[in-house]
Amino acid sequence: MTSPRPRPGQPMLRRYLRGSHVSWVQSCRLVRADHTGELLWLPIGAGFAHRVRPDGSVVRAAPVAEFGSGELVRGSWRGADVLILMPTDAAHSIWWFFVDGVFDGWYVNLEQRSPLWVRDGRFGVDVIDHELDIVVRPDRSWLWKDEDDLVAVTGLPGYWDAEGAASIRIEGERVLAAVETGAFPFDGSWCDFEADPSWPLPVLGEVAETAEDAGPAE
């Protein structure tokens, strides 16, 4: 039987995992899905959740167990509207940032993703963030981001070894080849994107603490 596929406009979750712990959740809306991948819209005000420590600081670049002890706090997405492309069979996503409707640059999030899943009619994808990222300005000048975070977790239980860290950087270098030549998706595509004004803000609904509590069920 053919697996169900999301339709444009449907809500979709990007659920980040550390071990079995849900560490981040972004509630998005699907723009399109085809053989090249999925394109998602994450507007300011969309449902969002992330782990925090008792002092309110965000849990990141930490031992896996620390994500389980941090509180998963619900809130809303802030800062910029974001268009997220999840290319098929690629260990990264590309983000377009929009400030007051104006394109403000790209972000390369290095990551590993699960196949799409659906539970109780809600579509989603599980993401393992690879810590290292790339910031790309509108003129395609760029810089690595969070290199120290990559170093900090390499070798920790539940993360990757030195060889894995090298593979993460190689994936980033592949994307940079497209940045430097102005190839898709850094060729101006989607920089004038406007979301369907009829779409309401995507909401989180129920948020699970662990992948086992809300894993793929269909």
What does this protein look like?
By secondary structure, the protein is of the alpha+beta class. Helix content is 15%, strand content 41%. It is built from three helices and eleven strands. The protein has a seven-stranded mixed β-barrel with strand order 1-2-3-6-7-8-10. A hairpin with a 2-residue loop joins β2 and β3.
Q: Which terms summarize this structure?
A:
218 residues, alpha+beta, FomD barrel-like fold, seven-stranded mixed beta barrel, 41% strand, globular, disordered C terminus
Shape: globular
How many structural domains can be distinguished in the coordinates? 1
Count of distinct strands: 11
Q: Indicate the radius of gyration in whole angstroms.
A: 17 Å
Which secondary-structure class do the elements indicate? alpha+beta
Strand line-up in the sheet with most strands: 1-2-3-6-7-8-10
> Any idea what the CATH architecture is?
Beta Barrel
Number of helices: 3
Q: End-to-end distance, in Å?
A: 12 Å
Helix content bin: 10-25%
The secondary-structure element order is: EEEEHEEEEEEEHH
Unreliable stretches covering 5 or more consecutive residues:
214-218
Which topology does CATH recognise? Answer: FomD barrel-like fold
Largest sheet: 7 strands, mixed, barrel
Instruction: State which percent range the strand residues make up.
Output: 35-45%
Offer a quick outline of the entry.
With 218 residues, the protein is of the alpha+beta class. It is 15% helix and 41% strand.
Describe the secondary structure blueprint for this structure.
Blueprint (H helix, E strand, L loop, with lengths): L10 E8 L2 E14 L2 E6 L4 E6 L11 H6 L1 E6 L4 E7 L4 E8 L2 E12 L3 E3 L2 E15 L5 E4 L1 H7 L8 H20 L37
Parallel strand pairs: 1-10
Antiparallel strand pairs: 1-2, 2-3, 2-4, 3-6, 4-5, 6-7, 7-8, 8-10, 9-10, 10-11
